[in-house]
Amino acid sequence: MGSLKLPYALKSSHGGKSIELVPTSRFRPKCCLSTSSGWRSYPGTIVKTLSLVYPYSLCCINSRRGVQLIAKASVQPPMTEELVNEKIEDLPTSGDSIRQRFLDFYAARGHKILPSSSLVPDDPTVLLTIAGMLQFKPIFLGKAPREVPRATTSQRCIRTNDVENVGRTSRHHTFFEMLGNFSFGDYFKKDAIKWAWELSTVEFGLPADRLWVSVYEDDDEAFTIWQDEVGFPANRIKRLGEEDNFWSSGPTGPCGPCSEIYYDFNPQGGDSDADLGDDSRFIEFYNLVFMQYNKKDDGSLEPLKQKNIDTGLGLERMARILQKVPNNYETDLIFPIIEKASELANVKYALSDDHTKTYLKIIGDHMRAIVYLISDGVIPSNIGRGYVVRRLIRRAVRTGRLLGIRGDGMGNLDGAFLPILAEKVIELSSRINPDVKTCSSRIHEELKREELRFVLTLERGEKLLEQMLEDALQSAQENRSPPTLSGKDAFLLYDTYGFPVEITQEVADERGVSIDMNGFDIEMENQRRQSQAAHNTVKLEVENGTDLMENVVDTEFLGYDSLSAKAVIEGLLVKGNPVMQVSEGSDVEVLLDRTPFYAESGGQIGDHGILYVTEPGNDQKASVQIKDVQKSAGNIFVHKGTVTQGVLEVGTEVEAAVDPKLRQLAKVHHTATHLLQAALKQVIGKETSQAGSLVAFDRLRFDFNFHRPLQDDELLQIEELINRWIGDATLLETKVMPLTDAKKAGAIAMFGEKYGEQVRVVEVPGVSMELCGGTHVTSTSEIRGFKIISEQGIASGIRRIEAVAGDAFIEYVSARDNYMKQLCSTLKVKAEEVPTRVEALLEELRAARNEVSVARSKAAIYKASTIEGKAFYVGNSKKIRVLVEFMDDIDAEALKTAAEYLVDKLEDPAAVVLGSIPGEGKVSLTAAFTPGVVELGVQAGKFIGPIAKLCGGGGGGRPNFAQAGGRKPENLLDALEKAREDLVAVLSEKLG
Predict the structure, then answer these.
(1) Per-residue pLDDT tens over the stretch 122-172
(2) Which pLDDT value is given to residue 761?
(3) Residue 848: band (very low, low, confident or very high) from pLDDT cuts 50, 70, 90
(4) Interatomic CA distance for residues 552 and 537, integer angstroms
(5) Does position 201 have pLDDT exceeding 50, yes or no?
(6) Greatest Cα pair distance in the chain
């Protein structure tokens, strides 16, 4: 019995003392080997062939029913004689299992398993998290100390520079997981290569004869390790150039050669002339970056002091290989979403044509990206990250409609289908990011709102396409040329209204209109270049201050307990350059070994205060006025200020004193911000979350996710809640605990912040609990009072509240009271009578304005009547009356009245163009054409625009009536003359 074949498997009896063969139709077994080093799991769906190797034990587990022992039997002689030299064959493996096995593999080799960072990076140079190494960028730069020598992660990533390839190739994604192992000056090439090989061939069981390797063309060291240490055949090691196998973050900074591992889907193709770039045969699944050089400004390379390892293994790619499916989309990581989309579209994926499968793959991919982006706080908008998620949502909606999905796909034509698909993504998210489930309500609401809004946009796009085709046909008739839709217009429909260019082509073909595809491709390439620049570059630069920072230890922060302390100057910088001393009048950045100053972070601005040096007898020798404190290179505090007295030197002891009044203002506003978030969750919904904040001395600002303006009564409820909590005089509790414990306790994390294993938790018992490193009051009673100054939208789905508390609240209320007293004095009424009196004054003002408007209209009509006789005829058999005149200084409304009066008086057909200068630096233009003129194809809206440009402006309107403006009155008379000439010319041509 060398092996067990389906449909049979082993089953134990009485504690594993006997073995029998049983049918496997009732369960789907998984397998694991027991060795001297412990259990090693080989999970899968169905065992194809199972062989046993002495001295291992076998067990089969029912994966449907959880961890349930089905069979366990030690292999003992005489059975072993038949089983020696047998091996376990490759087993299909789940995506979740691949992820965990990768992390466990490197954890067993001394790597610390670290969590995935947010898709919103703490890095201003990168729009979204695009690589596993991004969270370690400060360490690679030497700006932050390494907390561990080696680490391993499963990092969520977003890349949209290849969005057009999604669904069309077997491997491109917008959202993907990058499994990585990293060394920060610890191990290097030899260990990285040997472990990558062991992971691939032993842990994941990939056949060695199916693997290929590439190395950088000049990297003899890596080639030798693969050939001599691993024993990999030299004929399957490809030397590739800089474009393929040399990693560089930018024009300067850390860089190094790469080595990549490829899987061969078609080994029958042979070894000679094999092209690793052939996607139909090979897939690169593991990239090892040997970060060993620093690229200088002149392009030369110098060895790094600390050599690093940065690797990435694509989870989706490995799942495809192990699960033996034709593409990444059909793995268990994505296919359940595709199956749900197929159900809504009422199609069967397996029976679908290539176009339908492509559409389903696009939806499966995009839904993962959309859900995880929204979960990480990205709200659809027209700028930055918000535009990325909005574009993906629109592509998903558009693609769903191409599949025939209408409404929610389940009969409700007014519903949305994206939330239904999102539920499937959330269901699959537990191993990727468990926090997604807690955001499910917000994700559903955002998707529903965005989808329904875009459906209306699509309908408007259809109307716009129809208008564009009409214009193209008319232009072709006028110019006697083939009708063509410009590439720019086709791209506008694609990018703004979600129309695939293929659909635009089909509709245009039906109308006999071609599309300028070269122009469309140019617009697409421009966007692609911008997208790549924004999304696919991680810039690493070794800055001037690096050497200084390497010699400065982290700053010890004392500010929670004290506002003053003695400290030693560890470093001085002037304009970014290190100096040993600095004199009076100079701006300086001071690095201390310890400090009571709070450095800007978590939305709270840095402390102000003073550093001073004293002589014996406590006479002040030197002083620095500190106006800001920032963090640099991890946890080094940079005190920014101006030397106001004496000379400051490195190594000198100083007294550091924080301005206590300003610190109190910051504390009050920070605690008030926590109360505001708690009140928002209570009044408008628990799903509301922070999207940014500012804690300043004079005010606080809080940005949050919400889809509409807050009502006056809601703002009042929020204020009342907060002021009640202030009046309760609740004592705050602060404690440091493990991050996992804090999350279990319900602590809220601050948007955009990165947290270590130990976190500081600030709690207002019964009201609020947040992870926060900021400074806070001891009791809520110190806040004294809270008042919302404003509430407004700052982006789609993002609202902003500004408020004041403490002394700033008192100052605000006092100032408003003074304004009211002045208003009462001016209006000669009591405070409670002000609204009634103001309303009465406004009514009087409206009446006066109406009277003025009527008078202006009468004056305009009178002026129009005086120029009516200046109209002249154009044409012979059919004559059109034309009037183009300057009307002095009347305003735009009066000019409109005059034009309407004139076209009525002149009767159809007639064309009137009037211009005026209503004020300094202002031009008004009006064109009014009767139906007889419009029927000839002459439209007021199109005619007036070029005339307005001559006056430094623009405008447009309907075919029969249009208005425009400008900023160059000196050009108006010439512009009107041009209008007269053009009108005569075009009407003469139309009349023949």
Answers:
(1) 776 778 888 888 888 888 877 778 889 999 999 999 988 778 789 888 888
(2) 94
(3) confident
(4) 30
(5) yes
(6) 122
Higher pLDDT, 775 or 439: 775
Provide the 3-class DSSP secondary structure of residue 428: coil
Do 592 and 658 form a contact (C-beta atoms < 8 A)? no
Nearest Cα neighbor of 232 from 256, 273, 198, 258 is 198
Give, in degrees to the nearest 5, the angle at Cα 253 between 251 and 257.
90
Given the structure tokens 């009578």, which residue do they identify? 833
Main-chain phi, psi angles of 214, to 5 degrees: -120, 150
- 8 A C-beta contact, residue 977 and residue 950: no
Count the Cβ atoms, other than its own, within 10 Å of residue 153. Answer: 26
Beta bridge partners of 738: 758
Cα separation, 10 vs 61, whole angstroms:
10
What pLDDT, on a 0 to 100 scale, did the predictor assign at position 5? 34
**Half-sphere exposure in the Cβ direction for 714 (13 Å, CA):** 14
- What DSSP string runs through 102-122? HHHHHHTTTPEE-PPPPSS-S
Q: How many other CB atoms are found less than 10 A from the CB of residue 876?
A: 9
What pLDDT, on a 0 to 100 scale, did the predictor assign at position 735?
93
497 Cβ contact partners less than 8 Å away, ≥ 6 residues apart: 457, 458, 460, 461, 464, 465
The answer to whether the CB of 48 falls within 8 A of the CB of 40 is no
Q: Is the pLDDT of residue 7 over 70?
A: no
Determine whether 528 is exposed, middle or buried from the number of CB atoms within 10 Å of its CB (0-12, 13-18, 19+): middle
Q: Are 870 and 913 in contact (CB under 8 A)?
A: no
| DSSP structure class, residue 435 | G
Residue 55: phi, psi to the nearest 5? -105, 40
Mean pLDDT to the nearest integer, 354-373: 94
C-beta atoms surrounding 500 within 10 Å? 15
The mean pLDDT of 466-470, rounded to a whole number, is: 89
- SS3 of residue 707 by DSSP: coil
- Token look-up 């955001």 returns 439
Please, which residues have CB within 8 angstroms of residue 263's CB and are 6 or more apart in sequence?
206, 210, 211, 212, 282, 283, 285, 321
Query: Cα separation of 175 and 573, whole Å?
Result: 42
Q: What is the pLDDT of residues 424-457, one digit of tens each?
A: 999 999 888 888 888 888 899 889 988 998 888 7
CA-based nearest residue to 773, from 757, 783, 786, 762: 762
Tokens 């860089």 — which residue?
255
- The full DSSP string for 123-169 is -TT-SS--STTGGGHHHHHTSS--SSSEEEEEEEEE--TTGGGTTTS
- Is 249 exposed, middle or buried, given 0-12, 13-18 or 19+ CB atoms closer than 10 A? buried
- What is the mean pLDDT of the segment spanning 480-509? 81
Give the integer Cα–Cα distance in Å for 9 and 27: 10
> Is the overall model pTM greater than 0.85, yes or no?
no
- 656: tokens are 């550091």
525: which residues sit within 8 A by CB, 6+ positions away? none
Interatomic CA distance for residues 425 and 446, integer angstroms: 15
Residue 263 has pLDDT above 70, yes or no: yes
Q: What are phi and psi of 554, to 5 degrees?
A: -55, 145
Encoded amino acid at 513, one letter = V
- Between the alpha carbon of residue 20 and those of residues 70, 86, 89, 414, 656, the distances in Å are 11, 20, 21, 58, 79
Looking at the chain, how many residues does it have? 992
Inform me whether the pLDDT recorded for 19 exceeds 50: no
Average pLDDT over residues 582-594: 94
- 540 or 15, greater pLDDT: 540
- What is residue 528's predicted lDDT score, i.e. its pLDDT? 64
Main-chain phi, psi angles of 678, to 5 degrees: -65, -40
